[in-house]
Design a protein that fits this description.
With about 500 residues, this protein is of the alpha/beta class. It folds into three domains: about 180 residues, FAD/NAD(P)-binding domain; about 110 residues, FAD/NAD(P)-binding domain, CATH 3.50.50; about 140 residues, FAD/NAD-linked reductase, C-terminal dimerisation domain (Enolase-like, domain 1, 2-Layer Sandwich). The protein contains 13 helices and 25 strands. The strands form six sheets. Strands 1, 2, 3, 4, 5, 6 and 19 form a seven-stranded mixed sheet that branches. A six-stranded antiparallel sheet has the order 20-21-24-23-22-25. Strand 12 and strand 13 form a beta hairpin. Helix 1 runs parallel beside helix 7, helix 2 packs antiparallel against helix 3 and helix 2 runs parallel beside helix 4. The longest helix has 26 residues.
Length: about 500
């Protein structure tokens, strides 16, 4: 019996796969979407939505606990179970919306067969044109397709020699399953995910947080002034950062976690905590796909090798999102999934432009990034001019009583084109989006200067940065000095 045939078979219904399926239906294609676990993937489960819901709730609690705003709240009852109930409610709302749409599109109407079919199970290539789908009961179905999209996401990287029990020692996929706030926790890894969970638990003020960072500073991919603000805020929140430290062992001892750190002088110290979070990056979920049978090449990290979402060795097979491990962000995954579908069906999409890539780091304070930072520009040999305006000069930040942080803008010294933006402080994420569009469209300092901004808003600091670089700022650098306004070249 010949296998069922589709125009496109998508493995994975996370941000990339889901967006790709909807776009393929737009184009009138017969699509099979396969998901072994939960629709939405890390875009909503144990990731982008769930952790950000926790972050918002923790910020609400931290604000309610402040005593410098003219009011003092008393008897604030905090329940981890109730917090997680709210988080799971948010996840359920989003998952229901996604599932509702899949069910609608998969239902035949007006005597016409639906374009979209959905299967629960794990896909494995049998040949370049065929996959076997094994459901949770072990039943196997073989299907064929003219095109494939691999969008199976990623999973936490596990360090060798450390046993993850999911209770005392957990990954970012497991931490939301804790029964209560731990009294103490060590976080191994000072990247985005580790620092976000450090922020969340420190905001709730129930957990003593230690972070182990093998690098000289946290967030090493960002500029030093950014990392310094975050590190100082972490210290004020009671977070201990073990910098330039080597973890030599981590194990469960008498229902606690013991970790041993050694400094550069060879002095080692054992420390006991209740929980440990392993957050040292992620690896693509490609090892069980039998990609060899499809002729799909992977890199050293297991990510599918692609050229603008298309496999470099199998031209009818595409990959998007964490499966390639180029840029592990939900917004990028969606964009790549839609791009792959348009490209495979001959619609000549605009080339993917990562120069205007924007991301948010849910820390204390919030951090948003668009385009290049200073160290990236220096590494690539790109000349730039930079202006920094502290939030203490921004009326909206003053009104919010939240003046920590700053806005930093990079531009081309010859053309004035915008190269990058960093916003650290309140409403950073909302401030960044406009500049992502400006960079994507080749906009300049003059474009920002001439745009009428609402008032008072945080993005006015971006406009002031542009005016500093143009030499016509409202706040004069010679008056306020480098402590509040900085202008330089690199």
């Amino acid at each position: 019996m010949l296998p069922t045939r589709f125009d496109l078979c998508i493995l994975g219904a996370g941000p990339a796969g889901y967006a790709a399926a909807i776009r393929a239906v737009d184009l009138g294609k017969k699509v099979l979407l396969v998901e072994r676990d939960r629709v939405g993937g890390a875009g909503i489960h144990a990731g982008a939505l769930s952790s950000k819901t926790m972050w918002h709730l923790s910020n609400d609690y931290a604000i309610a606990s402040r005593t410098d705003r003219g009011y003092v709240a008393q008897q604030i009852d905090l329940s981890y179970a109730k917090v997680m109930e709210s988080v799971r409610s948010a996840v359920s709302e989003c998952r229901t919306l996604l599932t509702q749409q899949l069910e609608y599109l998969a239902t035949p109407r007006d005597g016409q067969q639906s374009l979209l079919q959905f299967r629960r199970g794990s896909g494995r290539f049998l040949s370049p044109q065929e996959v076997a789908i094994t459901d949770h009961h072990g039943a196997v179905e073989c299907v064929g397709a003219d095109n494939f999209l691999i969008a199976t996401g990623s999973t936490p990287r596990l360090p060798p020699g450390i046993s993850i029990d999911g209770h005392r020692i957990v990954t970012s996929d497991q931490i939301e399953d804790l029964a209560d706030f731990p009294k103490s926790m060590v976080i191994i890894g000072a990247g985005v995910v580790g620092c976000e969970y450090a922020t969340i638990f420190a905001n709730f003020r129930q957990t003593k947080i230690n972070i182990i960072d093998q690098q000289p500073r946290i967030l090493p991919f960002e500029d030093e002034d950014i990392a310094q603000v975050i590190a100082q805020n972490f210290e004020s929140m009671g977070i201990t950062i073990h910098q330039a430290s080597k973890l030599t062992s981590l194990r469960v001892v008498d229902d606690q976690v013991e970790y041993v750190l050694c400094n550069d002088r060879g002095v080692c110290e054992p420390i006991l905590v209740e929980r440990a979070l392993i957050s040292i990056g992620r690896i693509p979920n490609t090892q069980h796909l039998n990609l060899e049978a499809a002729g799909v090449a992977v890199g050293k990290n297991g990510g599918v090798l692609v050229d603008a979402t298309r496999s470099t060795t199998a031209p009818h097979i595409y990959a998007a999102g964490d499966t390639t491990m180029d840029i592990a962000l939900a917004n990028v995954a969606e964009l790549e999934g839609r791009h792959a579908v348009e490209r495979m069906f001959g619609h000549s999409p605009e080339p993917l432009r990562y120069e205007a890539l924007s991301s948010i780091m849910f820390l204390a304070p919030e951090l948003a990034a668009v385009g290049l930072n200073e160290q990236q520009a220096q590494k690539q040999g790109i000349r730039y001019r930079v202006a920094v305006v502290q939030n203490r000069l921004v009326n909206r930040a003053i009104a919010m009583r939240s003046t920590g942080g700053f806005v930093k803008l990079l531009s081309d010294p010859q053309t004035g084109k915008i190269l990058g933006l960093r916003v650290i402080g309140p409403q950073a994420s909302s401030t960044a989006q406009g500049i992502a569009l400006v960079i994507d469209r080749g906009g300049t300092l003059a474009d920002i200067d001439h745009c009428i901004h609402p008032h008072p808003v945080i993005p006015e600091a971006v406009q002031e940065c542009a005016r500093v670089l143009l030499g016509r700022s409202v706040h004069r650098p010679e008056v306020f000095g480098c402590g509040l306004i900085r202008c330089g070249e690199g």
